[in-house]
Specification:
This protein has 13 helices and 13 strands. By secondary structure, the protein is of the alpha/beta class. The strands form two sheets. Strands 7-8-9-3-10-11-13-12 form an eight-stranded mixed sheet, sandwiched between helices. Strands 1, 2, 4, 5 and 6 form a five-stranded antiparallel sheet that branches. Helix 4 (108-118) packs parallel to helix 7.
Length: 327
Amino acid sequence: MALLDVRGLTVEFATRAGPFRAVEGVDVTVDAGETLAIVGESGSGKSVAMLAVMGLLPWNAKVTAERIEFDGRDLRALSPRERRALVGKDLAMIFQEPMSALNPCFTVGFQIAEALSAHGAARGAEARKRAVALLAEVGIPEPEARARAFPHQMSGGMCQRAMIAMAIALRPKLLIADEPTTALDVTVQAQILDLLKRLRAETGMALVLVTHDMGVVAETADRVVVQYAGRRAEGNAAAALFAAPRHPYTAALLDALPERATGERLAAIPGAVPGPSEPRLPCAFAPRCPRAQDVCRTQAPPRASTGGEGYVHCHFPLPAPAGERAA
């Protein structure tokens, strides 16, 4: 049984212009100890889908799904008190902007100790002592001094590490990392990724990595889901997806990697993800897709198996490698 099992997740926001569907019919499964990457450009609904799982969307969001289960429990049936007991303990999240996610009015050590106290893991001096130990665990130098510091007194990389310390304080079964390396320099990015991989190996937790950086995915993920305009495009084991992408959008993302550049200019995807006020075709990628035909603008793309655990939602997927076709 999957640790996280989400089926048919749809999220709509009430706006003055009418309902806006940010996520449509998305499935997400994560096994214990697995790293799943959810990939796509900004506006693809990646973060919204994970915030829906966490129960952290604003009042104007309407969440529907066939199933949202975590560790065998139906998250839709939990009372607010039961959800508060779960979130932060067994199910935790690292947010995209650590400088804004941390409370500027309290020290970093107090905020980590508060997470421990809220779930009854430790209180008072013991909670403060464990907060310092957690800061040391995530590689922050002089953790005693940093525990007494306010967020604005620390760099972005240190604030991100502090967020990770808070998230892992109660050894969650699943950690959702929303763009954990955004706005960090390359050296700090590598350190954060190494830290997440080490924590996964040491604690056995599952990890959902929400990102638009395919390079990060290649270094970290076991399995990848590619999302576009709130809908699934493709999913597969990471090695298989990088070796032979089947959806034109996945191929375009990979072609945009600097290390794959073949000329003087980097490859780019023309256009942009449709915004809230723009109409979406049955295949939302059709206006940007070099393989699009009339059927793409009138009929939703079917789901097709690409072998093993792989699948693609496309009328005209890229051909499989010759060896796979022969098999």
